């Protein structure tokens, strides 16, 4: 079966690397002295390290806008648009965006910067670290079409980080009903937080429930488990393992990226 991922990334089982943006105007951790110039230069270094390391795609996110909002402020989307806009001529791989945790803002940003995909929480009701987390996928998709972003691929995170479904639902059941009701372009399966390994058994159950839908391993993919994860999943979203010493807060280490991608490319030969 040929998935849309092959058309965008020109490979099976693509690796989408996260380009984590530092805190921006309005964020508690924003470096006002360094200003946006410092944020942009940091993003530029991260982008080039990921691309030089050989990743298949990049997803820009406001990862250090902690603590996250469920309805993002305008200044965050505006800052991200400026950063990506200034870097656009240097981006050499397919890219998408994730404005944590606001699907409307993610789509607005994707439309503004020609992003090919977004990852978000589009469906479900959760008890989370951010409070009660509700969604309205029908409204979001209508907004997507209203702003001319209907070709932007929607990656649904169905096992949200730091959250749990209010109802006691089986993950395979969630996968099947999400695909039936919302027609997602892909499902993302996560661990508890960034860097936490995605449970291979959960990943297997989700993929088994929706064999004709793209399924990504969304967190905790590492050098030692990449073969196991990609045997099941159709690709992976990777961030923490690309950073110095594999620590979330650190910058990207191009050598770790190269080592990881060399193993991935060798493993992918089995699926050609």
TrEMBL record:
Belongs to the BtpA family. Pfam families: BtpA. InterPro entries: BtpA (IPR005137), RibuloseP-bd_barrel (IPR011060). The lineage of its organism: Bacteria, Bacillati, Chloroflexota, Anaerolineae, Anaerolineales. This is SgcQ protein.
